[in-house]
Amino acid sequence: MEKGKGNMQKVNRTKEGELISIVIPVYNAEAYLKNCLDSIISQTYSDFEAIVINDGSTDNSLGICKQYTIRDKRIILINQNNSGVSRARNAGLSKAKGEYITFIDSDDTIDPRYLEILYRNIKSAKADISMCTWKCDGNKFYKDKFNIKRWNKYQTFFSMFKTKEIDGSVCSKLYRKKCIENLFFDEKLRIGEDQIFAIKAIEKANEIVFQDIPLYTYFIRNTSAMNSKLDSRYWDVIYRAEWLVAEANSNLPEMYGLFKKEEINIYVTMIIRDIKSGTEASKKIVDYVWTRVKNTRCGEYAKYCNFYEFLRFVLIKYFYNIVCYIVRIKDRWHTNCIK
């Protein structure tokens, strides 16, 4: 582990007295990393440590991390062999000394008030998790709405899977450390591990506070795992979908219908992605999820979904071949127009 030396940047900050640990896994992020780290050291809340875990990057990410440890002594560098994002986050968790913990991906950025607002809300509500909304890179920054909501775990899951007010990732959230003690990321999973962690944390929380203000900016890469064609990694997505239903059966029976709906949504999205790819990237994966969609009753699914979700489901369930034909003709027409 390498710790930086030198004076931190002088910016206007508020000092609240409780340490927040920021965990940032890094892998081949040289094109985005400076923006991410600049957004962190520009926080108005100054009592934080930023634990940057270089996961065996082959580009200049490690060099950038070292530069920032010199620039700001609050940045702590962990350098490890390439082991995956879950092990990187777990390494950061094991080193975290803060009373509160937040996770930021190395290609994302946060508003200067991110820590300040999430911390203020978690303290005033005496909550275990503080959440905000997010935006995608390049989108308009919406005006602060300032409406703050206090939820129990069931209301939070409803907002995650039904109204979509919050996203299911581990980011854009501040966790009380005691709430996530003994929670770790599943290092066997390559996709979807962060949602499982977030759901387990919400289950343990007594109260969650949410403010409808976009303080977290996701940078969507076309090369990211969730934007790629179906391959063997998507068995991890299937595992996560089935885990949701199993978790509801075991610990959250009130959420069974909603979690089951989310499972089917995941499968429908995977099928549509395979159609758009124009090739059967993994016939076993498509056959597996198609069987589960086909065996799901419309009435059971309709109770928990919105109109758009239900329309997608019905089209895939009953008119799969027609949908395939339309999508591929549309893509072919679009390609010809571009040439």
From TrEMBL:
Source superkingdom: Bacteria
InterPro entries: Glyco_trans_2-like, Nucleotide-diphossugar_trans
Domain Glycosyltransferase 2-like: 21-183
Entry EC no(s): 2.4.-.-
Alphabetical UniProt keywords: Glycosyltransferase, Transferase
One Gene Ontology term of the molecular function aspect: glycosyltransferase activity
Protein name: Glycosyltransferase, group 2 family protein
